[in-house]
Amino acid sequence: SKLTSLGQLEMTWRSRVHFHPLLVRVLHKSRLRYYGKPEKKLDMPYQAYFEVADGSGMMSMVLWNSLCPEWYNSMKVGTVLLLEQYAIKTSYPFKTQPTPGDSQMKRFATIEISLNVRDPPTKIRIIPEETVKPEWGLPEVKYRFITRSELDDLPNNHSCDVIGLVTFVGRAERARKREHGEDFWLYRWAHAIDGTSDQPFILELFATSQPEVFEHIHPMTYLVCTQMRVVRDLTENSSSTTYLTTSNESQIFITGWHKGQPYTKDTKVKNFIQWTKTQSEADQMKKTVIGGYYPFPRPPNNFLKY
User: Fold this and answer.
1) What 3-state class would DSSP assign to 111?
2) Can you tell me the distance from the alpha carbon of 109 to that of 120, in angstroms, rounded to the nearest whole number?
3) DSSP character at residue 56
4) How many C-beta atoms lie closer than 10 Å to residue 213's C-beta?
5) Distance in angstroms (rounded) separating the CA atoms of residues 124 and 120
6) Residues 130 and 156 in one domain
7) Final residue of a structural domain among 115, 136, 157
8) What pTM did the predictor assign?
9) pLDDT tens readout for residues 115-172
10) Residue 104 has what DSSP assignment?
11) Residues 20, 90 share a domain
């Protein structure tokens, strides 16, 4: 059938009501958002953002309401989609923006693709990776993996991906989203090493929309975290409090979930796997810790400084 591109959509969307089908690859995926309120009678008040791309550039795509339980888990980073009967809207200005792995990619930020159950009812088809043809010109998923030795030189809020061997994982903790609200963020701390430094990555992992992964992070698993943000205490001794925290588009993977993920082709991931083959499992096991209270960043040694 006749396809359109994201670039053509941006130029012609105001003058059209019906759009030709789109063929795109998912490059980023946000956590699932629940926006239900007691006074609003919506059956499934869910929403999820994706960043999708074709040969012309990248654009946001929003999955709405009952399409979320049906499609959210199937639309992985790297998945190729054929979309028909979608809507185009002006983009929401306050949403978070992931950092693209390919800094040269053009971003269409004025509009977004809207996928709904009706008005119009969107048709979504997942194209199996083995049938994707090179001539379609779909971009590959690119990552920004860093090693632990590179972390100390990165600025605050820098976006990166990491892989490491988990040596510590804390219990799940809760923090209020707002001071007097009833909603909580769920998070846990983890340490992971990659052999490039004596220090581990310190990771603040908020519960993403992957409970089956978040709940099963344990020592000795290979942990991949994407779209992490560097948090650096800019006030005093900055090197002591550098850690990484999840963003709205972070994805977390542990041993058992890596097969078929696009990052398995990345050079730094391959280097890490080579390093793990040189390590003695028994030696690493002795250094691992699980659970307990983890106060971080650590308070000063004495009350005067505090």
Assistant:
1) strand
2) 22
3) T
4) 20
5) 12
6) no
7) 136
8) 0.91
9) 999 888 999 999 999 999 999 999 999 999 999 999 999 999 999 999 999 999 999 9
10) T
11) yes
